[in-house]
Amino acid sequence: MSGQLLFALRRVLLTIPVLFVMSIVVFLMIRLVPGDPVRTMLGFRATEENVIELRRQLGLDQSLFVQYTDWAGALLRGDLGTDIVSHAPLAELLAQRLPVTLELAGLSMLLAVIVGVPLGVLAANGSRWVKRLTEGFVVFGISIPDFWLGIMLVLVFAGTLAILPPSGYVPFAVDPLENLRYMILPVLTLAVGEAAYILRTTRSSVASVLGRPFVTFLRAKGIKTNRIVLGHALRNAGPTIVTVIGIQVGVLLGGAIIIETLFALPGVGRLVVTAINQRNYPTVQVGVLAIATIFIVISLVTDLIVARLDSRIGDGAAT
Fold first, then answer.
1. Distance CA 230, CA 240 (A)
2. Best exposed site among 2, 196, 201, 257 by fewest CB in 10 Å?
3. Would you report the helix, strand and coil content of the chain in percent, each value rounded to 5?
4. Could you tell me which residues come within 8 angstroms of residue 267 by beta carbon, excluding any fewer than 6 positions away?
5. How far, in Å, CA of 254 to CA of 251, rounded?
6. Residues in the chain where the model's pLDDT stays below 50
7. What is the largest CA-CA distance in the chain?
8. 281-315: per-residue pLDDT in tens?
């Protein structure tokens, strides 16, 4: 078995215990939040008999161990449960909400990569003015909170200029152009910070490679700078850049929860926030678990891509 294949197999198997531990954390997390979900659902006029009966129906009168094994067993059978407020199947709710979150995260990361990588390469090998401008963008992007930037963008583009909608969502299948109009401001809000991180990583990685002896040798041979940067420096810096992009996807998914609430996007993040306010624990558990699972899968794919780009990782796994 080759080193690359062995590394991929080990990495996939490692995902299983990570998912197991994560499910326990998600299960316990919602139960540590103060408040009684049954009394929240029934209201202050509920009798003690009503509370006891609903708690029994929801299985909350069982021990935590029994509750967890019942929940995990149902998940393994493909049963995500039911929303205890709307009584809708959680599988249907996720199927409706997940595409919105994935569209927001995917477009934001795509824009961040399109902006961050080229600017990072320019900053590593550009003039002093280019370096100053990109440094200013990095400081701005990393320092500004997403929610503040989102509010400013709404005030300017939806309030003052009135050229973009302040909030709402139109499905891509219904009207693609209108969908993109509604997504511009949320995507910009999330992408600015991510682009700054990717720019900084690309700049430092490419600059580090450009300082190595083999680059000096290539310059001495008369090879053009653009060819050295694009053909050698960027390729050698690739694993580091891909790793940071994979990590930033997790940060971006966390930020999407705030942005979906700010721009009234009907995604998983907004569903979880609403469910937390209602103490709707089955929806919170499944929503958080879905977002965490996406991040774990993306981390797995990132590691496999990095191993593909850097053969030393696969060789190390084989020893």
1. 15
2. 2
3. 80, 0, 20
4. 97, 98, 100, 101, 104, 256, 260
5. 5
6. 319
7. 87
8. 888 888 888 888 888 888 888 888 888 877 666 56
